[in-house]
């Protein structure tokens, strides 16, 4: 592509949109001016286009750093479907896989390379980046860079080390939820040079919050679903409870399915597609559902547990009403909801000594000697491992998550055994292969239909389901996959005998693990702070729900006028008189009536308009021909 391609042409030709969402074009133009950018766009704000459009408008490849394997695969699949060449370095790939993909980026027409921050530490990746024509580095979920963020990932701290290798390409850091402390931290940790900061307000006037305390949530859910038509999401923490509730709703005539990370990828994809198409009304899910989902007409999001903090809650609740029409975010709490949150957060607090013991036991269990093991993909029976080394399996799992957070290991999606396959033959050659080897056609075509990302990276497959679909014995399916692997048409890896685990760094002595105790103390403090903020949001009796969230994210609290608190009779009246608030606002800028109402949202609309009329009659303010109000200069 030529330099300077028109961004509106790019938007239309690749994505089918006639115009940008508010804030997107300003961000894109700063990127094209080679400025470093921090883009804070709430859930549904269209973050992906902010790096995809400028990358497509220029020659070269965009490197996208993301911590989420599922989201990387979805993004690659979506771009490929639009005719855009995108690839990802995924967990479980062999050295040969990585080498081939990186060669394609260096010598081919790849526009987007998705990888995890851990991959950036690899020598082979860094050496190839030096040979790439990089036009942009995009850091998704950028709050992971900051220890003040809710999902701190230490490998993110090393992203800035690639700056000397990318020939001055700008960095864009994107996140949907960050406090002011996180934003400041990003500037230093990513070594951003005079970054432009684009922060869209978190306030969404169409999102209506409700918090209710109930001892019978199931009946209340039915009542709410009958009151509010349209697509809905119900969030629950437990996988088993998602299945139970979805089954109960279906039995009572509500079309509902469950979704959680323990399901096979194929099942999740089918259920998500049904819900996206409107064939299923209610998705009952754990927080594994929703990342990267852009369904505009969700009218209702219900939480049956307190989330760990406002960031997670705002992202999940914010999946409602992306079309700008009214949407409701209900939180249905039982008498012990607060205590369950406290116990859950405490159980997840990091334990360094336990992590060291689990790391050593794991290395011994897998027979990985000091100084080796990097890139090993293996299986792990977490229950058997815990029993063998006398760990509580829940505590051992939390220790594994801590080791993963610091880039020492990576757990496969869903943390369960699965076979993987990737069709590596180019499309033209694949067609020629099918003509000359017709007996493999049913299997190849079925995999292409079911597994959208199978041509871009190793993808989880189910041999038994494939066997049933093409009416071929399971042993024959496995044999065909092995034959195709030998013929270099497919790369096939049978499921391991336990959960999938990748050893991402060479084994070291446990005392030298790159985990600092002071970092863990800070993580613990921030986790407790977020927990307390979530409890306050749900339990306070007088302030506007949205105002509480805005204050947490560093914005001036406003009154939404629609939440259960604003609708109650005991709402706190603002201390500053409305006429004084209007004069203060107009002393800094001219505003239209709508802008004034939005800026002074803690006041009733009727009070604002009445005060405006009086101030105009007194000659203190005036209304200009362009519709803006201003202070009347004497």
Automatic annotation (TrEMBL):
CDD domains: DEXHc_RecQ. Its EC number is 5.6.2.4. SUPFAM superfamilies: P-loop containing nucleoside triphosphate hydrolases. The keyword Nucleotide-binding applies. InterPro entries: DEAD/DEAH_box_helicase_dom, DNA_helicase_ATP-dep_RecQ, Helicase_ATP-bd, Helicase_C-like, P-loop_NTPase, RecQ_Zn-bd, WH-like_DNA-bd_sf. Residues 28-196 form the Helicase ATP-binding domain. Keywords: ATP-binding, DNA-binding, Helicase, Hydrolase, Isomerase, Metal-binding, Nucleotide-binding. This is ATP-dependent DNA helicase RecQ.
